[in-house]
Amino acid sequence: MKHLLSLLLLLFAFAVGAQAQDDLPPPTSKPGGRNEAPTMPDEDFQGFKPKKKIDLSKFIIEPNFNLSFGQGRIDFGIAPYVGYQVFEQKKGAAEGLYVGGGFTYFYTGFRNLRFTDGTGRSYTANANWHTYGGGVFVQYNVWRGFFARVKMEVLHRSLDDFYNGGVNVVVNPVNGSYKVNIPKVEKTIPALLIGGGYNLTRSKNFFLPLMVSYNVLHNVTDRNYSLYPRGVVVQLGFINIF
């Protein structure tokens, strides 16, 4: 009887202990224990915003490419310019203010140029001209393809200068071979063109301009080697008509 009573007391104590454990709160991995207030989401957090896309419709592109062949001469040129609309007269209109820039490269090759020595004997030689650089512009599209533009260019020219004298011919008296020495000129020439024109494509985004400009710097640069030797410049694209 005594053993039965002891067993009953042991079972009772075990039951009370198990019930006490059931009343405890569930374990937590957060510091502060059971008295910590639950965390709330950050009310200022707005989520990840998508990046603002570039509006391609605001760009203008002036491709400017030229390739031509003549009698003993080849001309190649590329001068792409790109502008972006920073002000528009009305939503979606091509009229407004644009800023942009680009680069320029021209090449002219001359073949079989004829030169004479002091005796009147004729000799032939080749020559090359390279022009490269770039510029920036501000343009206002006024109305239906008409625009006004200010363009600043800085161009470096590397030329075989056969126009301005200094060419000499060296002849080997033994075998009659010869060499024509053409002086080379290196010039960096700025130009500031102010004028206006008309976009022959009438496109909102692509330009083939017919322009009349005035080179403000033509009197303070070396006009013998400038692309714009006169004050007034008439251009179709980037090709000088006058």
Account of the 3D structure:
The protein has 242 residues and is mainly beta. It has one domain. It contains one helix and 13 strands, in the order H-E-E-E-E-E-E-E-E-E-E-E-E-E. It has one helix at 2-22; strands at residues 59-62, 65-70, 73-78, 81-88, 96-116, 122-143, 146-160, 168-171, 178-181, 184-199, 209-215, 232-236, 239-240. Strands 1, 2, 3, 4, 5, 6, 7, 10, 11, 12 and 13 form an eleven-stranded antiparallel beta sheet that branches. The chain has a two-stranded antiparallel sheet with strand order 8-9. A hairpin with a 2-residue loop joins strand 12 (232-236) and strand 13 (239-240). The longest helix has 21 residues, at 2-22. It is elongated, with a radius of gyration of 40 Å. The N and C termini lie far apart (131 Å). Residues 1-16 and 18-22 have low confidence and may be disordered.
Defining key terms:
single chain; mainly beta; 11-stranded antiparallel sheet; 13 strands; 9% helix; elongated; disordered N terminus
Short description:
Helix content is 9%, strand content 50%. By secondary structure, the chain is mainly beta. Strands 1, 2, 3, 4, 5, 6, 7, 10, 11, 12 and 13 form an 11-stranded antiparallel β-sheet that branches. Strands 8-9 form a two-stranded antiparallel ribbon.
